Amino acid sequence: MSRAAALALVAALCACAQAHVRIGERVLEPSTYRPIPSRLERSVGLLRRLALPPLQLETSPVDPRYCLDACDSAGFGVDLTSEAQRVLTDWRGYEVVRVDPVPESRPRLDDLASWARSASGDDPPEPLRALVQRIGGSARCDGVIVLQTELVYLTWLDAAAWYATLTFAIPISMARIGTRLEADVFDARTGRRVWSSHLRAGGSPDTQLSHADDLVDELLDPLELALPRVLTRPL
Q1: How many CB atoms are closer than 10 A to CB 14?
Q2: Does residue 43 surpass a pLDDT of 80?
Q3: Does pTM top 0.85 for this prediction?
């Protein structure tokens, strides 16, 4: 099999994406309103007003000069954020408030995203819970949704490995690269995580640029519909 054929085959096998969802089990109480009694049941959907901090974006390699092809991570991040706000508002029924934390809070936001990415539980350390509470309180929101993505590109080192191993390293390279997305919803009242979804799409992130909408749709589609505004009473 030629190198081009092997590359195409592995890319096709890695191109699928499927969201994996985790839902917390705690009873939630919104911070900005009182629900009107009805037969309509909601859990995460009670956090209908969500604060959306800036997207947490990581790329590998960090220096775009080492990418085998162009690395347009900045443009991809803008598209992801805009599409996420559209899906949350138009399709899930949430009120989304974009927030930009003060500079001294941004490292903590990085820590929160890192914790969400690696932790299996729903209780962040106290400083991170306090961060969620501050963000939600200052924006007068019921919850905080943290979006993050990791883009792993092919590098010149991958190309060197292909030639050094007579293309046998191609499958290893293709398994490593891809686009990883994650969304975590935190209760602004307690600072605890109540919902999360993550997916991974294989293949070069450059090939996903035209599919950013589809990736975000897949990521957020499992999110419960927000409680309709007509069933709320402001506090």
Answers
A1: 19
A2: yes
A3: no
**214 band by pLDDT with thresholds 50, 70 and 90:** confident
**Shortest CA distance to 205 belongs to which of 73, 63, 106, 50?**
73
Q: In this structure, are residues 183 and 113 in contact, taking their beta carbons and an 8 Å threshold? A: no
- For the chain, the straight-line distance linking the first and the last C-alpha, in angstroms and rounded, comes to 67
CA atoms within 13 A on the CB side of 41: 1
Closest CA to 19 of 177, 185, 207, 200: 200
CB 48 within 8 A of CB 177: no
Decide: helix, strand or coil at residue 70. coil
CATH assignment of the domain containing 64: 3.40.50
Which neighbouring-strand residues pair with 185?
145, 195
pLDDT in tens, 150-190: 888 766 555 555 455 555 554 545 555 778 899 999 999 99
Q: What are phi and psi of 24, to 5 degrees?
A: -70, 165
- How many domains is the chain built from? 1
CA 111 to chain centre: 15
Residue 190 in any domain: the answer is yes
Give the domain extent around 105: 19-155+179-234
Which is it for the CA torsion 107, 178, 146, 97, positive or negative?
positive
Per-residue pLDDT, 209: 63
What tokens does 150 get?
């990791």
Which distant-in-sequence residues (6+ apart) come within 8 Å of 160 by Cβ?
A: none
Is 185 within 8 Å of 96 (Cβ atoms)? Answer: no
